[in-house]
Write a structure and sequence with these properties.
CATH topology: Lambda Exonuclease, Chain A
Helix content: 25-40%
Number of helices: 6
Order of helices and strands: EEHHEEEHEHEHH
CATH class: Alpha Beta
Structural class: alpha/beta
Largest sheet: 7 strands, mixed
CATH architecture: Alpha-Beta Complex
Shape: globular
Bound molecules: iron/sulfur cluster
Number of strands: 7
């Protein structure tokens, strides 16, 4: 969570998946509050893991991608590290998102996450794949047309080609730095209080008595 930097100073660990997400949620994770996942989110998480595994295997066998690659970007100046696990990476990263409904455009925080991976991989482009969650992911994956890879198409599937964005990376660093400052002051930052609270494991802290 918070690691010693070897010179006595502490390096905080953020996750790429937290890029531009609710700062209060990141704060609670750093402070070690227990997570309490709603049951319906657990079901989705499991479906998401299955989907990642099946699609990941295809990317590995057919296209030579490395799966679940761990990365660390460190800034001694800012006093933190960003850790990540890239779903699939070769000369560019691919991030797979299982969703119950597919977005028209990518979510900002998914773009920010992918952007961290592009920064690490020194890639000019990355790809976001949104795939509809299904109990049997092969039923969706079997219908995907890979002939124009990496821009693949299919029903219940959307691929976005995304260029690396230097400004977005700076914004991401700034976002993490603000959470770090809040952590040091022991003062939880304001939360998003949005639809995303429904899926948040710290909902019990922001909405006590509302479970
Ligand atoms: S419940 Fe909402 S506001 Fe509170 S930490 Fe979670 S996402 Fe943020």
């Amino acid at each position: 969570m918070v690691e010693n930097n070897g010179d006595g100073s502490e390096l905080m660990e953020f996750y790429a998946s937290e890029a531009l997400t609710c700062p209060r949620r990141i704060y609670f994770r750093l402070k070690g509050y227990p997570e309490r996942w709603p049951d319906f989110v657990r079901v989705r998480l499991n479906q998401g893991i299955n989907t990642h595994n099946v699609l990941g295997e295809i990317l590995k066998r057919r296209f030579g991608f490395e799966l679940e690659k761990h990365l660390v970007l460190r800034s001694n100046k800012l006093g933190f590290e960003i850790h990540g696990r890239i779903d699939a990476v070769r000369d560019f990263p691919i991030e797979i998102k299982g969703k119950t409904s597919l977005p028209r455009v990518p979510y900002d925080y998914h773009l920010a996450q992918l952007n961290v991976y592009m920064r690490w991989a020194e890639a000019e482009y990355g790809y976001l794949y949104y795939i509809r969650l299904h109990e049997e992911p092969m039923k969706v994956i079997n219908k995907i047309d890979f002939s124009n890879f990496p821009v693949v198409r299919g029903p219940n599937f959307k691929a976005f080609e995304v260029p690396y964005d230097k400004t977005l990376f700076k914004d991401t660093l700034r976002h993490f730095y603000k959470v770090k400052r809040a952590y040091e002051r022991n003062k939880p930052p304001e939360g998003w209080r949005s639809f995303s609270c429904k899926f948040c494991p710290y909902r019990y802290l922001c909405y006590p008595g509302d479970e």
